[in-house]
Amino acid sequence: MDESDLRDRLERIERRQHLVLVVLVGIAYVIGFWTAGVLYAAFGLVAFVLVAVRRRRSRNAAGQ
Fold first, then answer.
1. Predicted TM-score of the model (pTM)
2. Which end of the chain is more exposed for a tag (fewer CB within 10 A), N or C?
3. How far apart are CA 24 and CA 40, in angstroms?
């Protein structure tokens, strides 16, 4: 990949991150920051556990 392709890819990633941040802050304004914080923490914990379990299963399957 040349530099212009990488720059375009980085700009798309930055726009997506900005959009996600705006959506999360917007949700926090609507439902309240404490409630949103608890929901985001719970979602993050569930996502972390799912990723960890999936990786562990794939590692065990590859080792058999």
1. 0.67
2. C
3. 9
